[in-house]
Amino acid sequence: MPGPLTPSDWLLAAPLLWLAGGVVAILVLDAFRPAARHEAGLAFLALLGAAWSLWPLAEAAGEPLEGIPGLPVRAFSGMLEASPGNAVVGLLCLGAAALAGILSLRSLCRLESGRHRTALWTLLLVAPAGMLVTLASSHFATLFLGIETLSLPLYVLSALRRTEEGSVEAGLKYFLLGAFASGFLVFGMALLYAGTGRMDPGAVTAALEGGALARAGLGFLYAGLLFKLAIAPFHLWVADVYQGAPTPITALMAAGTKAAAALALLHWAPPAGPLGSGAWALLACATLALANLTALNQENLKRILALSGVAHAGLLLFALAALQAAPGSGASVEAAVNFYLVAYGVSALAAFGALELLERRAGGHAEASALRGLGRRFPVAGGILALAVLSLAGIPGTAGFLGKYFVFAELVRSGEVGVALLGILLTLWSFAYYLRILVVLYMKDAAPAGGPPAVQDTPAAVALWVPAVLVVLLGVWPAPAHLL
Amino acid sequence: MIPTAHVHILAALLFGLGILGFLRQRNAIMLLMSVELMLNSANLSFLAAAREQGNVDGAMMPLFVLVVAAAEAAVGLALIIILFRKRVSLDVDLLRSLRD
Amino acid sequence: MSDYLLTLITFLPLVGSVAVLLLPKGADNAVRWTAAVFTGAALALSTWLYFVGFDDGATGMQFVEQRSWIPAFNIEYFLGVDGISLPLIWLSALIHFVAVFASWGIRKSVKGYFALLLLLEVGVNGVFCALDFFLFYVFWEIMLLPMYFLIGIWGGPRREYAAIKFFLYTLAGSVLMLVAMVALYLMSGNYGDGATFNILTMHELAGQWVADQGTFLGMRFTTWIFWFLFVGFAVKIPVFPFHTWLPDAHVEAPTPISVILAGILLKLGSYGMLRINFPLAPDAFAQAADFLAILGTINIVYGAYVAMGQTDFKRVVAYSSVSHMGYFLLGSAAWTIEGINGASLQLFTHGTSSAMLFLIVGVVYDRAHHRNLNDFGGLAQRMPFYLGLSTIGIFAGLGLPGMSGFISEALTLLGAYQVYPVLVIISTLGILMTAAFLLYALQRVFLGPLPEKYSGFQDINGREAFCMIPFAALCILVGVLPSLVLDKMALAIEALQNDLAPFFQAVAG
After folding, report:
1. How many CB pairs under 8 A join A and B?
2. What is the pLDDT of residues C140-151, one digit of tens each?
3. Which chain A residue is nearest to residue C181, measuring alpha carbons?
4. Which of A409, C84, C367, C447 sits at 20 to 30 Å (Cα–Cα) from C360?
5. DSSP C196
6. B91 forms bridges with which residues in the sheet?
């Protein structure tokens, strides 16, 4: 029976309340004092507060929190469920929003009037709230609401440069395909509910034993989730949207959306056994192969990084395959996935963040021809981009290597050695386009400077060090993050 | 009393119509409407199933879906208006500036 | 201090690398001196380690540091040094120190260059010190990147091509190594205290897993592991037919990078074979030994043969490296005490002589801006001091008695003759050809009439001499007193030989 809120409820609700409070505060203040520039400060305060309230859970490894029965924490009659590892990924989402905000201070914030700023900062709070709900969802309602709450702000944010054709096009494309995918998601939920009478992850198990209706529902549900995660064959939108959206927003999408959708998929993954690992492994290999193949022919660095994100999402499915192949490996697979998401997240943040700074130097272009030799001319931004690319490629000494290593280790441990070998080969293939980025940045002679000179952006340049340092730190000392 | 299965069949037909519309139509407004059709067919299924199961869990979902659909329509229409101002056309096939 | 000596030797250059990056833009001389100080400190420490700290009479690892690193996979931060790695650690420190001075003339992005050079030393020293396979692998890959950039940014006209080729070859090799590493880790989980990356523990377990291994796709596990590791390391040596990246990399790389590449990077593959590849899959090694010996002979003869046909001075030296590294393979495939000693000594002597040869090429290239042997002549008249040093380098390279190369090659061939007499006789062909092309190069550059355009050349300056003299001294010193190196290695090699000898007897019997 529903009673007063328990400590568990409060624990998981607190970050959301901070974010929602920030949104309300910005909107109310904006209504009364439209001229004041309070948005950014309030937004950072809300993000900090959310992170602060999430911290106890992220830190709680091994021992339960005071007043809360056991881990993972279950809240609101089981509608939300989060482990300490999930909380670490949640912190990543909050950090991604903060970084997107800092990167926007000198660019998106200066686009137009105050209205524009209000939209930017409120949406930058709503999106991570949606991500937090999504990654902890263990009920159809929270899953659907979470995904929509993270998607709607991103549709708008993608189109924020509304005088630019590419930005509007990215927003509209993302919106149309995202809404289409939501249709699949909801219809899948309806059929699952009709077939099994349940709305929690137990419905998946029941559906596998149940009739055709529920099984069809499962298919629709996964199609919807795989779209959000950009798994082949639902990956085609990614390159366009990532390219057209303002780069700070792209960074948020790459790190946050992917992490949230991946954890949701893990929550709702079928239990070991009946479905087998073959389907996941096949999807993973197909995604990697398609992403690699497409990325090789791209000229725009944002598109290349977008497809690298697709490949990374594909690799994640190997973890699901491992889960399928080895019953009882749930905890270690989840730990591997959490670490992998954090590793990819910080690498992607560093990559897109540094790319944003370089792009401004190149007159707003992200084509290889415009960025020639910029790595040598702007050593810090170029160095961070190079470091991030190396991490995405999976070079030892970076977080990206350990992330991939943990996932493949789970796969090998589950007995799928052949699949692991194939996956490693496909990963190797991706080096071709990562190397190309390095060649463009460092080994070509510099292009003549185009466009107006860029504004000095100290906050962004300083903030970029955070993901860059994390890439190295998690690469050489993963123990604290891997305690999950 | 209409059998639940019939309602599901109707919902599936509506859903299929939505998919077909989304894939065939080129007008952005029509695409939006197709998506609405898909969402509402799911609502129909939810309600029918809730009636059959005899609990309110399923009856609650359409409320969420309706609210979200309204928000989606608001965002979608805003985006479509910006597109229309730029292009004076609603044809989504014109969305081709993002290529390599 | 001695508790952390290996950590210091490995990571001092990293501190230097960060320090270099923190220096202000344009402070090029400060950057150079910072790099010199940090590589110098690493050299001083490893010199102390070599001559004072290391106990020749003790078996097993010394200066061990062992700490848990990634507990979830039982990965450790585990360093140690024995007679096999000791000379290579010292050589690495020396070569990097000299390379800093050889790089004094680099003008393009000086900060980035020296930061990468120092990072490279971290990777190389780390590989020689690491006793945890995972740690070894991390250092192995860390080394790959600076090299890629150093060739790709500061290289010659075809630098991109050479850099990518180098990267892809090495990467393909290291992925095979990664797969074998994970397989070994899982195999070790069946014994003792659970899965481990500890190389010494794996070494002890090797006998057991050879005894009760299964098969995979019709081949025994250790055979798979052996070949995966072998290809991974062979790319780096490089063993024919994986050698094609080497001449390109050498030709495009700036002189100091060629020095590092030939002097120490090629030794990493050989060291990996001795430390990991052979001991962890001993039965497969014993079975493959004949084939390895043949590969070694091919390297010796083919490398020398191709070198004879080159007109680019640097390409000549590059192919001579291919030829010289063949001795390592031939000597260790025989698995006699003399053979392994010769092979290991060859790593050291080739490190000094090839570094010397590349410095020699660098001197003429800096002055003439080309390396075409047919276009030189008569430099002896203008550069007598240079002639003297070059003669030492070239004689050491072709193995003249009294020089270091002679001792190691003679020992190798002596050791290999007991097992592969025919191959040894064939490989003497390689010695003849090496003598031929090196003397030919000497003649082309120094003798004959002096072309008008070269009459303004200055003899080598103090800095160039400072770079070459240590190597020249080592070429002679080790040639006269090989025990300086051999005594350090003796016990470790004897123990290793004893451990694996039963597997050779099993194959023979």
Report:
1. 135
2. 988 888 999 999
3. A409
4. C84
5. -
6. B27
Q: Is the pLDDT reported for residue C172 higher than 70? A: yes
- Helices and strands, counts by H and E, chain C: 21, 4
Indicate the residue of A413, A431, A443 with minimum beta-carbon distance to C159. Answer: A443
Residue A144 vs residues A224, A265, B61, B67, C195: alpha-carbon distances, Å? 10, 12, 9, 12, 42
B touches A (3+ CB pairs < 8 Å)? Answer: yes
Q: Is chain B in touch with chain C: ≥3 Cβ pairs within 8 A?
A: no
Instruction: For residue C30, give Cα distances in angstroms to C20, C95, C111, C146.
Output: 8, 21, 10, 21
Specify the 3-state DSSP secondary structure of C3.
Answer: helix
Domain ranges of chain A: 269-484
Residue from B78, B46, B69, B77 nearest B59 by CA: B46
**Is there a contact between C179 and A428 if contact means CB atoms under 8 Å apart?**
no
Residue A189 amino acid letter: M
ipTM of the complex as predicted: 0.95
* Distance of alpha carbon A446 from alpha carbon A373, whole angstroms: 4
Rg of the Cα atoms in chain A? 21
Peptide bond connecting A379 to the previous residue in cis, omega within 30 degrees of 0 = no
What is the 3-state secondary structure of C303-322?
Answer: HHHHHHCCCEHHHHHHHHHH
Q: How many residues can be counted in chain C?
A: 509
Tokens of residue A431, six digits: 């080096």
Which of A162, A180, A298 has its CB closest to that of B22?
Answer: A180
Number of neighbouring beta carbons within 10 Å of residue B2: 9
Model pLDDT for residues C262-285, shown as the tens digit of each residue:
999 999 999 999 999 999 999 999
Out of A396, A412, A442, name the one closest to residue C141 (CB).
A396
Interacting residues of C425 by C-beta distance below 8 A, sequence separation 6+? none
| Residue among C318, C340, C322 at smallest CA distance from C271 | C340
Low-confidence ranges of chain A (pLDDT < 50): 1
Q: 0.80 exceeded by the pTM?
A: yes
Q: Distance of alpha carbon A168 from its chain centroid, rounded?
A: 22
Residue pair C23/C49 in contact by the 8 Å Cβ criterion: no
Name C215's bridge partners. Answer: C220
CATH number 1.10.287.3510 given to B4-94 = yes
Q: Which residues of B touch A199 (CB under 8 A)?
A: 57-58, 61
Tokens of A392: 């995405």
**Cβ count within 10 A of residue C426:** 15
Question: What does the DSSP 8-state code read for residue A297?
Answer: T
Residue labelled with tokens 């780096």: C236
Q: Are B42 and B72 in contact (CB under 8 A)?
A: no
Per domain, the residue ranges of chain C are 285-509
Q: Which residues of A touch B45 (CB under 8 A)?
A: 187, 190-191, 193-194
Amino acid symbol at B95: L
Give the number of other CB atoms < 10 A from CB of residue B27. Answer: 14
Nearest chain C alpha carbon to A379 = C112
Q: How far is CA C26 from CA C22, C102, C117, in A?
A: 12, 20, 18
Look at C160 and A443 and tell me if their CB atoms are within 8 Å: yes
Contact A235, A316 (CB under 8 A): no
pLDDT at position C299 is: 92
Q: Amino acid identity of C371?
A: R
Contact A223, A242 (CB under 8 A): no
Contact between chains at A180 and B80 (C-beta distance less than 8 A): no
CB-side neighbour CA atoms (13 Å) of C368: 25
**Amino acid type, A158:** S
Residues on chain A touching C109 (C-beta within 8 angstroms):
376, 379
Q: Are A131 and A259 in contact (CB under 8 A)?
A: yes
Cis geometry, peptide bond prior to residue A396 (ω within 30 degrees of 0)? no
Q: What is the largest CA-CA distance in chain C?
A: 74
